[in-house]
Amino acid sequence: MKIAIRAQIAVVVFLLTLSSVASSQSKKPATVRLEGAVKASVNSLIIGAGIGPHYYSYIFAATRIGKKKFNDPPLIRLVYRQFQMDKFPERDFYELGERYRLKAIRDTTCDSKPADFGYEQFGDDRVSVMKLVDDRASDMIDEAAVLDCYTFTMTEFKRLH
Questions:
Q1: Closest Cα partner for 150 from 66, 69, 91?
Q2: CA-CA to 143 of 20 to 30 Å: which in 5, 111, 131, 153?
Q3: CA dist 109 to 47, 116, 155, Å?
Q4: How far is CA 14 from each of CA 22, 73, 89, 94, rounded to the nearest angstrom?
Q5: pTM attached to this predicted model
Q6: Which residues, including other chains, have CB under 8 Å from residue 118's CB and lie 6 or more apart?
Q7: Is 37 exposed, middle or buried (0-12, 13-18, 19+ CB in 10 A)?
């Protein structure tokens, strides 16, 4: 009798565990509101096969992440997931350093250093693929610092005036 009750309890605990794991895996990642300006764009010289999304990296000075505002904006890696060629951020976003508000998803899998994602290796040559918005941006960017990464698409993307 005691063994049967213990077995039933074990089954219930197992099913509850499976249920919580399944529900945590099916949750959509939370979006975070970001505000700030691009300080550098990263233009890869390597072209993919054209299947699936393309990814473009930017170094973004975030004046706001979620509800938190910053007077001294931290730099983050902002990765744009492009699915269609006509859905690309306007040039002001990545060339003129205009201020933007967008929604993004925190993605720890792409946290990295500008020294890693801002350069590409071609034979013996290490080539910079980072384009700075202006000369002041070079003083802000510490190539050895690991930047938190956020991904975004063109949904909910707006220039601030």
A1: 66
A2: 153
A3: 22, 14, 22
A4: 12, 46, 47, 50
A5: 0.75
A6: 40, 42, 59, 128, 129, 130, 143
A7: buried
